[in-house]
Each structure stands twice: as structure tokens, then as C-alpha cells.
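Q: I'm a student working through a structural biology exercise. My instructor gave each of us a protein and asked us to get a predicted structure, then write a short paragraph describing it. Mine is Metallothionein. I'm not confident about reading structure output yet, so if you can add a plain explanation after the C-alpha cells, that would really help. Here is the sequence I was given:
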Amino acid sequence: MTTVTQMKCACPHCLCIVSLSDAIIVDGKPYCSEACANGTCKESGGCGHTGCGCA
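A: Happy to help. First, here is the predicted structure for Metallothionein. I'll explain a few features afterward.
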């Protein structure tokens, strides 16, 4: 049996891999930040993680 502990952020613009224990879960989907979770990462200049495509 394999246990998944990390997933890609559910935001379509985001490249982050997020630990499920640290993720912000919205509607059962993991997000790396509040900006991604509430859909404002593009407007707010990104999720704050280096090298991500949100900005």
C-alpha cells in the first residue's frame, strides 16, 4: 500500500508541491497558500514561493 503525502497544489497556475499535512484544504483539494486557495494568486502577485508560475 502506498500513502500519498505530497501533491501538486490544486491551483491550475501553481507549480508547487505541497505536503498534505501542511496544505490548506478547500473542497477536498490541497493548496499551498491562501492566495491559491481563494483563487487570487494571479491578482496578488503569486503564492509567495520561489519559482512558481502564479505571478
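A: Here are two points you could use in your paragraph. Strands lie at 6-8, 17-19, 24-26, 29-31. The chain has a mean pLDDT of 93. It's a good idea to check both against the output above yourself.
Q: Great, thank you!
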